[in-house]
UniProtKB/TrEMBL annotation:
GO molecular function, one term: ATP binding
Organism per entry: Jeotgalibacillus alimentarius
Protein name: Carbamoyl phosphate synthase small chain
Pfam families membership: CPSase_sm_chain, GATase
Binding site for L-glutamine: 46, 220, 222, 248, 251, 289, 291-292
Stored SUPFAM superfamilies: Carbamoyl phosphate synthetase, small subunit N-terminal domain, Class I glutamine amidotransferase-like
Pathway stated in the Swiss-Prot or TrEMBL entry: Amino-acid biosynthesis; L-arginine biosynthesis; carbamoyl phosphate from bicarbonate: step 1/1; Pyrimidine metabolism; UMP biosynthesis via de novo pathway; (S)-dihydroorotate from bicarbonate: step 1/3
An individual GO BP term: 'de novo' UMP biosynthetic process
Alphabetized UniProt keyword annotations: Amino-acid biosynthesis, Arginine biosynthesis, ATP-binding, Glutamine amidotransferase, Ligase, Nucleotide-binding, Pyrimidine biosynthesis
Keyword check for Ligase: yes
Domain annotation Carbamoyl-phosphate synthase small subunit N-terminal: ranges: 2-132
Subunit structure: Composed of two chains; the small (or glutamine) chain promotes the hydrolysis of glutamine to ammonia, which is used by the large (or ammonia) chain to synthesize carbamoyl phosphate. Tetramer of heterodimers (alpha,beta)4.
Transmembrane segments: none
């Protein structure tokens, strides 16, 4: 095995063994607490430019299969684990996690004390890091990390480059792709929606020209303020067509309504986050992956109200427009990976479109 090391910008060093692709990687180091779902995590475009630490100690034991990908091309920078399984065992397994990382040119690092690393991130917040050779100059790497800036073009990297259809016989839904997980498309297809997926920079005029019954704003990576053109598009769509925002789409809807967002200390990434619906008191266990959140006080002067809150830290997990058919959630109702407690939100969106019946000249 090839010895490698993870160097963080605060000077912390974690030694381990390389697996997958043997190149170097640099990015924001974050952690995910899910016990399963590593294939979905690897292929979730919301992890673009990030190196993911998985807190569950054994990763890769059920292998990789063709069905559980959430995107065609993974954008994750690196995977950091305690132990990577060399011999997966599952009737659906077609390859090992080592095979996948090697094929996609994604470095892996195993043998790391992921508990200590996670506690470090929880204490000091997410930080930049680099996976490099065992003999790399630590001080030089730290200096370079401190002077480097995180990429701000993640959405443009992961969004589709051109529009494409996913035909159905039901309501027409335009899906604005900021880094869409395929799970969102699967849920809309299950409900017979006639879906058209469009790039993130598609204008409101172009979207409305497609005569949608509703618009879905998808998940995606990075700071929502890094795509101001998308905020302007959403602002123009509010009141014209029913809107359902998910994760980054939720943050963009809030910004379009005049609210603000902020960066969380270490984000929410995992598949067991409890969220409370304020109107009913119902608690759902949700799948989450975000590093930014909507500032609750900034909603007071807008036309949006808070509908859901995270029970772990009280942050905003859902909003709804007071008058117009527009709502969003910070978590993932399509799960993948994780529980499907919130799957009914797609049905709510369908009902909203049926009630509104948008008219086009």
């Amino acid at each position: 095995m090839t010895k490698k090391q993870l160097i963080l910008e605060d000077g912390s060093v974690f030694s381990g063994e390389g697996f997958g692709w043997m190149g170097e990687a640099e990015g924001e180091v974050v952690f995910n607490t899910g016990m399963t779902g590593y294939q979905e995590i690897l292929s979730d475009s919301s992890y673009c430019a990030q190196m993911v630490v998985l807190t569950y100690p054994l990763i890769g034991n059920y292998g990789i299969n063709r069905d559980d990908f959430e995107s065609i091309h993974p954008y994750i920078k690196a995977l950091i684990v305690r132990e990577a399984c060399d011999l997966p065992s599952n009737f659906r397994s077609e390859a090992s996690i080592d095979d996948l990382l090697n094929e996609k040119k994604i470095p892996g690092l195993s043998g790391v004390d992921t508990r200590r690393l996670t506690r470090l991130i929880r204490s000091y917040g997410t930080m930049k890091g680099r996976i490099c050779a065992e003999d790399a100059d630590v001080n030089q790497v730290i200096t370079e990390l401190k002077s480097s800036e995180l990429a701000k073009d993640q959405v443009s990297r992961v969004s589709t480059k051109s529009a494409y259809p996913s035909p159905g016989r039901g309501k027409r839904v335009v899906v604005v792709d900021y880094g869409m997980k395929h799970g969102i498309l699967r849920e809309l297809n299950r409900r017979q929606c006639d879906v058209i997926v469009v790039p993130y920079h598609t204008s409101a005029k172009e979207i409305l020209r497609l005569h949608p019954d509703g618009v879905v704003l998808t998940n995606g990576p990075g700071d929502p303020k890094s795509v101001p053109e998308s905020v302007e598009t959403v602002k123009q769509l509010i009141g014209s067509v029913p809107i359902f925002g998910i994760c980054l789409g939720h943050q963009l809807l809030a910004l379009a309504g005049g609210a603000d967002t902020f960066k969380l200390k270490f984000g929410h990434r995992g598949s067991n986050h409890p969220v409370k619906e304020l109107s009913s008191g119902k608690v759902a266990i949700t799948s989450q992956n975000h590093g930014y959140a909507v500032e609750e006080n900034s909603l007071l002067s807008t036309d949006f109200i808070v509908t859901h809150k995270a029970l772990n830290d009280g942050t905003v997990e859902g909003i709804q427009h007071r008058e117009q058919p527009a709502f969003s959630v910070q978590y993932h109702p399509e799960a993948s990976p994780g529980p499907e407690d919130a799957n009914e939100l797609f049905d709510r969106f369908i009902n909203m479109m049926e009630e509104e019946e948008v008219q086009y000249a």
